[in-house]
Amino acid sequence: MTDAQQFASDNYAGICPEAWQAMDRANRGSASAYGDDDWTQRASDAFRDLFETECEVFFAFNGTAANSLALASLCQSYHSVICSAQAHVETDECGAPEFFSNGSKLLVAPTESGKLDPQAIRKLATGRADIHFPKPRVVTITQPTETGQVYTVAEVQALSAVCRELGLRLHMDGARFAHACATLGCRPADITWRAGVDVLCFGGTKNGMAVGEAVLFFDPALAQDFDYRCKQAGQLASKMRFLSAPWVGLLESGAWLSNAEHGNACADRLAAAVADLPGVDLMFPVEANAVFLTAPDTVLDGLRARGWRFYTFIGGGARFMFAWDADPARVDALIADLRAVAGDAGADAFACAAA
Ligand SMILES: *Cc1c(COP(=O)(O)O)cnc(C)c1O
């Protein structure tokens, strides 16, 4: 039995047909273990085709592991990693980046929108240069950010320029990387290695897979021994083909992009529909598959009373996330309910003012 669709998280979605069918094909018969199989080879090659470069590709179970191990591979324990205050690595990974790097400290930049800018990096990276401070070594950015903003190619180029100047590596948390590509309409290479990104964590889970993220090293030297790091961290899948085959399904069919385009379009649909609603405002520009709304408590309570689930852990606003499977009719039902409760709240306010 399934409940009516909710948009509280893009992780509520199931597995998309392309990923599912590839897993089904991988399930016919046996194959070599630990990544020494055709599916894993084919998925790695599909990434190299998509990114137009001979990158090193690894598969992890989730984004926390992918980010943490990637960052750990870029620095020593006495180094530090610059990130935004809203970064998932800072707020939602339970200290895993510090744990897997044996203590590399996260240096948190206060940012308005969750986007890092060159000045913030320069300030943190050059503020202290003495032996007592953990030496800045890596910058990590989230593309799109946790609140759904997308870095342009020029913005990533500007960040990587300051990284190069200051001797810093650039990591990209791309848990929703496909959604950023859908928005930018650019080649994946242009927003990553051609713009100076050293390592990308490409999210599969929020792109339609059951589970799995890919870690792409654009400088093969940085990938040295990363397979051992994965194994030690419990991230080497013995039946690797079930982690890699869904990528073959997503990448070879183009579903990786169409899934993201669909999620983004649903977010745009909601954002456009609330533009004229009194008291209901967008907290952030809608540039990917997330919509954050501020609204009076009466409106949010009214939505909950009508059965809608959503998170309000960022600034008290309501977050709605749209995955590959978002049903436009359900988006319209949400819009209709939002209009109804916001209209009631507006009428109440009017009645109060008139009284
Ligand atoms: C979802 C997400 C991740 C990965 O989270 P896991 O639960 O560990 O898979 C990483 N970064 C961002 C920005 C995310 O939204």
UniProtKB/TrEMBL annotation:
Pfam families: Beta_elim_lyase (PF01212). Its EC number is 4.1.2.48. InterPro entries: ArAA_b-elim_lyase/Thr_aldolase, Low_specificity_L-TA_bact, PyrdxlP-dep_Trfase, PyrdxlP-dep_Trfase_major, PyrdxlP-dep_Trfase_small. It catalyses: L-allo-threonine = acetaldehyde + glycine; L-threonine = acetaldehyde + glycine. Residues 6-293 form the Aromatic amino acid beta-eliminating lyase/threonine aldolase domain. SUPFAM superfamilies: PLP-dependent transferases. Belongs to the threonine aldolase family. This is L-threonine aldolase. It comes from Sphingomonas taxi. The lineage of its organism: Bacteria, Pseudomonadati, Pseudomonadota, Alphaproteobacteria, Sphingomonadales.
